[in-house]
Amino acid sequence: MNFFENCTVVITTFFSGKKLDNCLLNIPDNFSKIVIDNGLEIKNKSYYENKFKNLKYIIPKENLGVPRSYSHGLSLVKTRYMFTTQPDVIVKKNCIENLLEAILNYPNAAILSPTIFHNSKYLVNGDYKILKYKNKKFLQQRNLFFNQAHRFPPDGDLSVDAVTGTAMLIDTLKLKNIGDWDKNIFNYYEDMDICLRLRLAGYEIVKIRKAEVDHDPFSSHDISFEEELNFSRNWHYSWSSLYFFKKHNDLFFAYKLATSIFINSLIKLMFYFFINKKKFSIHFSKFLGISSSLLGFGSNYRPFKKK
User: Are residues 205 and 262 in the same domain?
Assistant: First the structure.
């Protein structure tokens, strides 16, 4: 297999600054690369296209969010495989090549994912997930019970239910067979959604031990933007959690979950109103996000960068 002719790297970015440079510097020049800039920073286009070989820098008309960005990237990809990642990820040496090499061993796999470290430490819940379902009906996302076996990465490759969106090698034909990413989602749960749908379609998802990345969580943006992005993250995490459970579960279970989040956020935002501005903002954003989802509104909140 000619690795470089069979895979395109797609990165979504939002005011990432030098994080994007660091990410791209660790991706071999010969791979085609597509960057979707949701910060709409027009001045960056010529800078990155001149600095890095085989790179297309796309500036959409609006902030697309994560799944719509990857979907737009998919429409531009000419190769069978696409490797999706984000600016706060360092792709280790031969990571993508090792993923592509492993394809021959797992022909039914729709996603091959590298082993993910977080600032050089291994956290099992940041690497893969267990999705509990029965008779093609999703029941719950279950955290891995922490025990001695989960302190370290698996010894070899591992077939799993789902992987995080930190880094994925995706078979584009298999993804198109299930209908692409869910573009109703702006951020969060889009990775669990495609993993669940791919698994229910009979495809496999495999962690490849020889391929590694290092992730610096929640750092893919300008630090001056932190407060606004935290608000956006909590808003969309709450919105997407209810949307995901409504989509893949019965409404009773979904609304039971949503009611719990709604009441918990309401109590905490009232408690923190006078004593902790930061925690009040977190629970206020969760309250607004879950309320919007409960009322059937779209994932319409958008983070903004102050001038």
Answer: no
